[in-house]
Amino acid sequence: MVDPINIEDALQHIETLLAANDLDSAAEFLRSLHPADSAEILSTLEPDIQSALVARLQPTELAEVLGQMDEDDAAEVVQHMDVSALADVLDEMEPDVVADLLGELEPEAAHQLLQEMDEGEVVAPLMAYPEDSAGGIMNVAPPCLRRHMTVAEAFQFIKEHYQDANEIFYLYVLDRYGRLIGVVNLRALILAEPEQTIEEIMDRDVISVRVDADQEEVAQLLARYDLLALPVVDAEDKLVGIITVDDVVDVLEEEATEDIYRLAQVSEHAEIFSPITQAIRNRLPWLYINLGTAILASSVVSLFEETIAQVALLATFMPIVAGQGGNAGNQSMTIVVRSLALGEIDVDSAWKALRHELMLGLIHGVLLGVTIGLIAWFWKGNPWLGVIIGLAMLANLIIAAIVGVLVPTTLKRLKVDPALASSVFVTTATDVMGFAIFLGLATYFLNWLR
Amino acid sequence: MVDPINIEDALQHIETLLAANDLDSAAEFLRSLHPADSAEILSTLEPDIQSALVARLQPTELAEVLGQMDEDDAAEVVQHMDVSALADVLDEMEPDVVADLLGELEPEAAHQLLQEMDEGEVVAPLMAYPEDSAGGIMNVAPPCLRRHMTVAEAFQFIKEHYQDANEIFYLYVLDRYGRLIGVVNLRALILAEPEQTIEEIMDRDVISVRVDADQEEVAQLLARYDLLALPVVDAEDKLVGIITVDDVVDVLEEEATEDIYRLAQVSEHAEIFSPITQAIRNRLPWLYINLGTAILASSVVSLFEETIAQVALLATFMPIVAGQGGNAGNQSMTIVVRSLALGEIDVDSAWKALRHELMLGLIHGVLLGVTIGLIAWFWKGNPWLGVIIGLAMLANLIIAAIVGVLVPTTLKRLKVDPALASSVFVTTATDVMGFAIFLGLATYFLNWLR
Questions:
Q1: CATH numbers and ranges of domains, chain B
Q2: ipTM of the complex
Q3: Distance between CA A448 and CA A444 in Å, rounded?
């Protein structure tokens, strides 16, 4: 039984071998691991060492390892390989993975490889679809059954056509025009009598997706209906490909990471140990955008410097109102963004969500407003300060509810990823309005504060 | 072919039927949908209508619908059902789902149902494991092959023992002590000759998990090695259960949602249309915690009220330094939290991550410090103000890097979910230190600012 290996230990082992310049043993060690593990280790090595190790692997071995890498890492590993050697490797890989990999290369190099490959004409059509669409993640359609086949014939068909398949998820049934009319799972086939026809045992309710569907929608469908694979059809219901659950597991992790990073205002390409220049590109632009919005909020404060000079304790309470608005707005925004991503709401439910969040904002605003009002009163001994900060808190939490719903739903309506830019707008709104309302009220009632 | 239905339309349709008090047609409509869709619709209806509809469904129909619900929703739907009727329904469901559902009921009621059920002794052991462990999400072990069986015998075995299974993922091979020694996939079985033995065609490299492994680890293993199912073993390597990829897809979505919500300081139970009282419970405690930390930060500002009274424009710049620290700290923290969740780093890599983030904090701090310094100088005409705010910015970004790494890794080391509480600590640190350093420097160099 194989226990999943400890990557840190494996890395250390290979580094020891490399330090001793024992490339053959290092290649041998890689070969002994699960391809997913070799892929991770190979990705972390220096380019010249990668090349040396890659040269020592058989095409089928390298194909398995490349199949487990992110396409950008894989593209880096193969970039110095000879065209015909690489074409042999690519012929051993799954066409959808090859299409993604080729998409990372220079168009010229990709074209040359497609020419050189035996399976070039299978891969080329897959490259036409956007990377994050059903077409972009699907694999070529598997060999399909016809409804008049008997179970015995189907077994024979599988023996002939699935010799090279890694796994059979479902067997699809097509009519004579190539349109999808049914599905049979292997269990049903095994349990059936040899002389039964496919038509008798097939399930006519096939859930499928259109080739232009978004990959997130595909993932939701598979998750919702607990499917192992989803057939992909074109506008005429003809089967053009298949998406399997293992691809979707990767999509789900990718999409979740993307949302988490975008909500935190980090590029979705961020990785914990990105090279520093890359890390700066992933994060600094967002910090500068935030600096811009912070200066905008500051310029609001700047309008009230006279008031603050007279009642300096306003500076003490100023960040509380803005900060609580930011936190509440962030809560509403995050729930809306995630619910949009999971398909639990669509933009048409925006009004319902707005009513819900406004009600919450009102209740939270009253409770937090009274709390901070009492604290301010007893801390600084001025009841009017309490009233002003309490009212400002209430107003800012209502604003937070409004922007927390309207910003992400509006971005979604404009076909922008709501996770991408919502934080900036929500924080700017709650900062600017938080400062303006609190300091504005304070200026208006200045005589009662002094 | 079935297109995935539009839930909004379906809801409207059933509401029309219910408004006309036509419960029979409503039940009929539910029956016509995919159980996943019926489950979603049923969850949104009022309790008395749920009961009326549930009473109109056959045990097998209800079992399918309940199997697609969250366990808390399912528990609500069944709470008023008669014990023996419910036991019949539960007997039709998958044991792992029943175990989760029973876990939501009163212990007394759960015990009574286990007694009443035919499958009670299959379900009971599953209830012993923590809900988020491998044991908590696994299903009972499927019937297994022995290595001396022939392929023909294996087919016969499947016909006898898998009559009721939904799906066959892999066939596992056990030795005489019940220990896992191999795995055969159905494709290999179909392609093999009838007289070959299982031993000849089985794969001895079986990846498995221990019954006490965390569900997140399980999800990572399945995703990493592209598996459809993972066998679960006890301390003696005996097969005790199986976790299938469809359960893991749900786990991945759950865990991602949990992380996203916790990072935004919302309870992981939040849903967009939670009842208001529930929504308040999910969010208000976090707002009060933040109010506490905001008051802490304010009390730092309060120490410098004298300085602010003399140089009111400090109030203008004060939020910028704290805010940028908060944003940068949030970036580091989010990347560390997500990398921990995906298993890309562990707590032992904390020092490496700290070095990386410190370097970034230094570079970002210098760039943002110079930028804001120049802006402050030209805006307010005082170069010393620029120097002070620039230095404060640099210092706070370095602090942000430190807390952004150390807070989540320390929480992880303490076995607390890093997503849960990191934001509070990071924001508190960057606010308190941002105000203290900026206003402290300003007080020290007060003569040059006036």
A1: 7-128 (1.25.60.10), 139-259 (3.10.580.10), 276-449 (1.10.357.20)
A2: 0.77
A3: 9
